[in-house]
């Protein structure tokens, strides 16, 4: 397989759909148990009666639509700009792995110090990719 930042993009998209399945596999039974009918739910607060463990999964699904959008744009930019070298591809894969770990922490124990540490490391991967792409805009001019 050729080196590309697009494959980690696909992997994170696939993980997002795994979370979608997990969310509904837990949310629908929890709504039934709480006596909630989807037609009567008008706002997010109506779901506050659901168990915290169910809410955490939904929260993580939402989180996978926040910072990862920056990752998607950055990975596609790297691919199109020709900066998808071994380092940027590795940074992209590490970002995806950290987001999966972040999801698993939030959807299970939700231990905030660990979750924050993993989020911080993932953010550093994005920052490193960004800096590397900016540096690539200014190639050295020596002979």
Describe this structure in words.
Helix 1 runs antiparallel to helix 3, helix 1 (6-33) runs parallel beside helix 4 (86-107) and helix 4 (86-107) runs antiparallel to helix 5 (112-136). This protein has 5 helices and no strands. It has one domain: Membrane associated eicosanoid/glutathione metabolism-like domain (Four Helix Bundle (Hemerythrin (Met), subunit A), Up-down Bundle), CATH 1.20.120.550. It starts with 5 loop residues before the first helix and ends in a 7-residue tail after the last helix. The mean pLDDT is 95. The chain is mainly alpha-helical and 143 residues long.
Total of DSSP H or I helical runs spanning 4+ residues = 5
Q: What is the arithmetic mean of pLDDT?
A: 95
DSSP strand count = 0
CATH architecture classification: Up-down Bundle
Alpha carbon gyration radius: 19 Å
What form results from the Cα inertia axes?
Answer: elongated
Name of the CATH superfamily = Membrane associated eicosanoid/glutathione metabolism-like domain
List keywords for this structure.
71% helix; mainly alpha; elongated; Four Helix Bundle (Hemerythrin (Met), subunit A); 143 residues
């Amino acid at each position: 397989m050729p080196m590309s930042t697009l494959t980690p993009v696909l992997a994170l998209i696939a993980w997002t759909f795994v979370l979608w399945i997990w969310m509904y596999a837990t949310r629908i039974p929890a709504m039934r148990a709480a006596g909630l009918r989807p037609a009567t739910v008008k706002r997010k607060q109506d779901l506050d009666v659901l168990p915290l463990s169910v809410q955490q999964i939904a929260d993580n699904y939402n989180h996978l639509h926040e910072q990862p959008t920056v990752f998607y744009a950055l990975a596609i930019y790297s691919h199109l700009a020709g900066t998808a070298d071994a380092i940027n591809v590795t940074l992209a894969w590490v970002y995806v792995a950290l987001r999966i770990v972040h999801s698993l922490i939030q959807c299970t124990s939700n231990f905030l110090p660990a979750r924050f540490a993993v989020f911080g490391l993932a953010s550093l991967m994005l920052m490193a990719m960004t800096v590397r792409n900016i540096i690539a805009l200014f190639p050295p001019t020596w002979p």
